[in-house]
Amino acid sequence: MKRIILFATVLFISTFNLQAQKKKDLLDEIDKLRKELKTTKGELNDAQKKTKATLTQVETMEAQVKDLKETNASLLNNMGSFTELSKKKAQNLEKSLESIQEKDKQLKSINDAITKGDSVKLATLTVLKQALGNDAKIGVQNGVVLITLANTVLFGDDDKSVTVQDNAKSILGKIATALNAKPNLKIIVEGNSNALNFKDKNLNDNWDLSAKQAAAVVRALQNDYKVDPKRMSVLGKSEYGSQSIETSTRIIVDAKFDEFYNMVKENMKNASKS
């Protein structure tokens, strides 16, 4: 009986100790789980904070992406406008360049025509100087060749004479020879007279006298030396045209203005074709 009680007591004590150990182990496990739960909650809290921060960052990035898309669209639109504007400017520049090139051709054609006209004047001046030597004053003034002959050489000492003297015809002959060698040149004979009285002559005044003296020279060139009268004109300037004390008659030699105009027009036409 004692053995049974002892055994029961040992069994009870063993069972009690075993249960106590299990309880302790269970409490330790619970404490461990609590710690793990606490750690997990902390990690979860950190994860939630990181997630929230990430979501905020994502929202910020999405807003930035949206702004970039809008900016890109605006840039593309502006680039299209700029491209169109640049294209129009390029077209305008091209048209301006074509216009400048056309004007340059026109100016070149005019310059060529003027140069050609100047060459004609220079050649005429050279020919006349070679022909006349010191018999007459020859020069270029205002783009024309001038031959100046004293009225005393042409008409003698009588300041109201309208008859060309015989000794002046040799000079007119030399002038006519040079002029006939260049049939395309126009000739104006300009009379300048400064007589003081007209009581003894059938003349009204110096206007009348200068015109008749110029006409006498033209008549001599036409009748004696076969200069084409269609090339010649008479101009009377009276005493108001005289540029010196000694009165004189001037023969003005110039290229025909209509031929010069036609030459320029033709050059401009050829330049525009090329």
Number of helices: 5
| Class from helix and strand fractions | alpha+beta
- C-alpha-based Rg, rounded: 60 Å
Q: Tell how many strands the DSSP assignment holds.
A: 5
Strand content: 5-15%
CATH superfamily of the largest domain: OmpA-like domain
Mean pLDDT: 77
Order of helices and strands: HEEHHEHEEH
CATH architectural group of the largest domain: 2-Layer Sandwich
C-alpha geometry: rod-shaped
**Number of domain modules:** 2
Q: Give the terminus-to-terminus CA distance.
A: 146 Å
* Unreliably modeled segments: none
Describe what this molecule looks like in 3D.
With 274 residues, the chain is α+β, with helices and mostly antiparallel strands. It folds into 2 domains: 92 residues; 152 residues, 60s Ribosomal Protein L30, Chain: A. Strand 3, helix 4 and strand 4 form a beta-alpha-beta unit. The radius of gyration is 60 Å and the shape is rod-shaped. The chain starts with a helix and ends with a helix. Pfam families: OmpA. This is OmpA family protein. InterPro entries: Bact_OuterMem_StrucFunc (IPR050330), OmpA-like (IPR006665), OmpA-like_sf (IPR036737). Keywords: Coiled coil, Membrane.
